[in-house]
Amino acid sequence: MAILTFIGAGQMASGLTFPAFENGHEIRLVGTPLDRKIIDRLRQDNYHLTLDRTLHDGIHYYQVEEMEKAIEGADVIIGGVSSFGVDWFADEVLPKLHKNVPVITVTKGMIDEPDGNMVDFPDYWQSTKAGKDLNLNAIGGPCTARELSDHDQTWVAFCGRDKDTLHKLKAIFSTPYYHISLSNDVKGVELSVALKNGYAMAVSLTIGLTEKNEGIGKVHHNSEAALFGQSVTEMQKLLKLAGVRDESLVFGVGDLYVTISGGRSRRIGVLLGRGYSYDEAKEKLKGETLEAVVIATRTARAVRAMAERGKADLKDFPLLLHVDEVINNGKPVNIPWQATEAEYFE
Ligand SMILES: NC(=O)C1=CN([C@@H]2O[C@H](COP(=O)(O)OP(=O)(O)OC[C@H]3O[C@@H](n4cnc5c(N)ncnc54)[C@H](OP(=O)(O)O)[C@@H]3O)[C@@H](O)[C@H]2O)C=CC1
Ligand SMILES: O=C(CO)COP(=O)(O)O
């Protein structure tokens, strides 16, 4: 039995307690300063307010000021914040961790540098004073927290630099419904699953457009599939520009599928497709964790920076740049269909 301390009691970290608890481990779930109500309610009856599921009885719950107590004696630390909590995690959590205790995080996202270099979060944390000696790993791939909580068959990748650590982490979390591939291409896996958020929003524009033209509830799959293909093409080019391994794309592609089917990034795309402005859509989804807009903005900025330096061709990214225009410049949705046509000759 291992002691697992989850920091951040959002939906994903809390969903991950299911496989971990069922494998017999001691679970300590610590809320961030924003999770106070979630922890209060969990302490009453194990019901998680935003996950909308009841966690296993026997999990230990901690408010943020009890974090150090929860970290004491832990064998693994699981980071559960969203991309909006990355700096809080760097400033408030990393300095409290011991370098021989592995960390694994669920956070998806990336930071773009002025030259267009895209930095994944494990690398970002590793570059901080408190993070430089830590053993930082991450989870990427298609996984919605509620479906994992419901024991739906789930397939993810654990990535990190040390093979033995990854095998140890896999043994802790692996169950007959939680399937874990391993990779040491941290940047590849993490960028792939981050990029898909912006593209899930882009594909979902077609869902909203269909509803706008033909009525709510009307569904067409051709247009969704067309932009799915275009998204994969653009993601593949982005990963190539980032210099990562080809096989890491597959985790982002699976993630794109699940996010279009049932993610929060879908909801904003659908509203934009229906004709709401970005501000109106944001207002309608107030309180939701919407990472897609930040990711699409950062990715478009990175592509433009690389294009200025002659490293990328803007013509390769019509969908990304259109989404960026819609959310950041108020342009109406007008999918650049012609630009998605390609010619492939040997
Ligand atoms: N690796 C994987 O398998 C998967 C990962 N994800 C990713 O996991 C991350 C968390 O998603 P999810 O749990 O669904 O989101 P939630 O919104 O449920 O939880 C987000 C967590 O981050 C905290 N947080 C947000 N902003 C801040 C801040 N400024 N400072 C400190 N803490 C903050 C939240 O507090 P509060 O709840 O009060 O906002 C909460 O603890 C996301 O990056 C998401 O993309 C998602 C699916 C699968
Ligand atoms: O990452 C996800 C599933 O793997 C969920 O994405 P959303 O943040 O869009 O809900």
UniProtKB/TrEMBL annotation:
Active site: residue positions: K196
Residue intervals of the Glycerol-3-phosphate dehydrogenase NAD-dependent C-terminal domain: 185-334
GO MF annotation list: glycerol-3-phosphate dehydrogenase [NAD(P)+] activity; NAD binding
Signal peptide: none
Assigned keywords, A-Z: Lipid biosynthesis, Lipid metabolism, NAD, NADP, Oxidoreductase, Phospholipid biosynthesis, Phospholipid metabolism
Reactions performed catalytically: sn-glycerol 3-phosphate + NADP(+) = dihydroxyacetone phosphate + NADPH + H(+)
Binding site for NAD(+): A145, R264
Record InterPro entries: 6-PGluconate_DH-like_C_sf (IPR008927), 6PGD_dom2 (IPR013328), G3P_DH_NAD-dep (IPR006168), G3P_DH_NAD-dep_C (IPR006109), G3P_DH_NAD-dep_N (IPR011128), NAD(P)-bd_dom_sf (IPR036291)
Ranges in a coiled coil: none
GO cellular-component term (any): cytosol
GO terms of biological process kind: carbohydrate metabolic process; glycerol-3-phosphate catabolic process; phospholipid biosynthetic process
Domain Glycerol-3-phosphate dehydrogenase NAD-dependent N-terminal: 5-159
Nucleotide-binding listed as a keyword: no
E.C. no: 1.1.1.94
Similarity field: Belongs to the NAD-dependent glycerol-3-phosphate dehydrogenase family.
Name recorded for this polypeptide: Glycerol-3-phosphate dehydrogenase
Originating species: Catenisphaera adipataccumulans
